[in-house]
Write a structure and sequence with these properties.
Helix content: 40-55%
Number of strands: 5
Shape: globular
CATH topology of the largest domain: Nucleotidyltransferase, domain 5
Structural class: alpha/beta
Order of helices and strands: EEHHEHHEHEHHHH
Strand content: 15-25%
Strand order of the largest sheet: 3-2-1-4-5
CATH superfamily of the largest domain: Ribonuclease H-like superfamily/Ribonuclease H
CATH class of the largest domain: Alpha Beta
Radius of gyration: 19 Å
Length: 220
């Protein structure tokens, strides 16, 4: 039986892509992920994640990584219920990853507060039969999902590192990072609009832009 794990990285970030990764193994080989030490990517150091990526890719029958750019996310979530639309977009993308992997069973880390609803949204976008197990914190419960979380995290970190080299200290890209907020403030004051690697529909980005526009109006 072929088993897949699917997880994301960068969902709440205001900078950079949302990355979704999937890993496919034979069920008889799942224990090898435990032997490697695959676990929730957040519990691993960046160096250890890098080491595990190579080992996971070598062990896997197949893996696939998909990226949702800030522009793609903005187009979907700018109007209406942001979280609901983002959940649907992520479910559709996970379905694309599962389609590439063609597993018999797919374990996914549910992004929706209702894990069964997230499962249904994925299933609606699949053209073949697959058993979907959609659970919260699946990356801590199932090593196959942990493996996917590691691939997704490393891929996103690579993008953020490239942006940092080009544009300076952007922080980790999350609105809870003071360096990220300072970067956005500085950029919007200097250029008046955000670059294409910023999610303009995110509330922190909108708030900073509105603040900068008010300050500019007062100066005029």
């Amino acid at each position: 039986m072929r088993v897949a794990g699917v997880d994301d990285a960068g969902r709440g970030s205001v900078i950079g892509p949302l990355v979704i990764a999937g890993v496919l193994l034979e069920d008889k080989d799942l224990h090898k992920l435990v032997d490697l030490g695959a676990k929730n990517s957040k519990r691993l150091s960046p160096r250890r994640r890098e080491q595990l990526v190579a080992e996971i890719k070598e062990l896997a029958l197949k893996y696939h990584i998909a990226m949702l750019s800030p522009a793609e996310i903005d187009r979907v979530v700018e109007t209406g219920r942001k979280l609901h639309k983002l959940n649907r977009l992520e479910a559709q993308t996970m379905a694309k990853v599962i389609t590439v992997l063609k597993p018999d069973v797919a374990y996914v880390d549910a992004s929706d507060v209702l894990a069964d609803r997230f499962k249904q949204h994925i299933a609606e976008n699949l053209s073949f039969n697959v058993r979907i197990i959609s659970e919260h914190k699946a990356d801590t419960k199932y090593p196959i999902v942990s493996a996917a979380s590691i691939l997704a995290k490393v891929e996103r970190d690579k993008v953020i590192s490239e942006l940092r080299e080009k544009h300076g200290n952007i922080g980790c890209g999350y609105p809870t990072d003071h360096n990220t907020i300072r970067f956005l403030e500085g950029w919007i004051r200097k250029f008046g609009s955000y670059p294409d690697f910023v999610r303009r529909s995110w509330k922190p980005a909108k708030r900073l832009k509105t603040k900068a526009e008010k300050e500019q109006t007062r100066l005029v």
